[in-house]
């Protein structure tokens, strides 16, 4: 993202320069949030990383995808599209992580094969009918 942002700044078009600067800032924020050990020379890096770690996955997904989409809307080009693809993909992965784990195939098959009588046994309706007789 940073390399594509710097490449995007090599122009005289102000929208390209703005998109490039935003992409470089995106790269810096991603390094700060995801890899604070790369930014040990910055005093507040650990504090920012600790705050970001407290966020839920869906909040990180919205934040990362929003940061990645803005330069593409600012100036649509191949450089901005491919430069922000990895930042957007990390947001998508956080979004998928917020959905939770996939269900177990064995337990899903057991749920599908359960008979209505089994459900009645679990709810206690058969016992109450037997008590009435």
From TrEMBL:
This is Calcium channel flower. GO terms for cellular component: endomembrane system; membrane. Pfam families: Cg6151-P. The keyword Transmembrane helix applies. Belongs to the calcium channel flower family. It comes from Scyliorhinus torazame. It is found in: Endomembrane system. Its main location: membrane. The chain crosses the membrane at residues 21-45, 57-76, 82-100. PANTHER family: CALCIUM CHANNEL FLOWER HOMOLOG. Residues 114-133 are annotated as: Disordered. It is a multi-pass membrane protein. InterPro entries: TVP18/Ca-channel_flower (IPR019365). Keywords: Membrane, Transmembrane, Transmembrane helix. The lineage of its organism: Eukaryota, Metazoa, Chordata, Craniata, Vertebrata. The keyword Transmembrane applies. GO terms for biological process: vesicle-mediated transport.
């Amino acid at each position: 993202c940073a390399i594509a942002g710097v490449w995007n700044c090599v122009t005289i078009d102000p929208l390209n320069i703005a998109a490039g600067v935003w992409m470089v800032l995106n790269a810096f924020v991603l390094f700060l949030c995801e890899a604070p050990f790369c930014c040990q020379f910055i005093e507040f890096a650990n504090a920012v990383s600790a705050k970001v770690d407290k966020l839920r996955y869906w909040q990180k997904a919205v934040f990362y995808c929003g940061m990645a989409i803005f330069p593409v809307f600012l100036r649509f080009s191949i450089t901005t599209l491919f430069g922000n693809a990895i930042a957007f993909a990390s947001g998508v992965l956080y979004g998928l992580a917020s959905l939770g784990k996939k269900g177990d195939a064995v337990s899903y098959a057991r749920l599908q094969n359960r008979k209505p009588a089994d459900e009645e046994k679990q709810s206690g309706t058969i016992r109450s009918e037997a008590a009435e007789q």
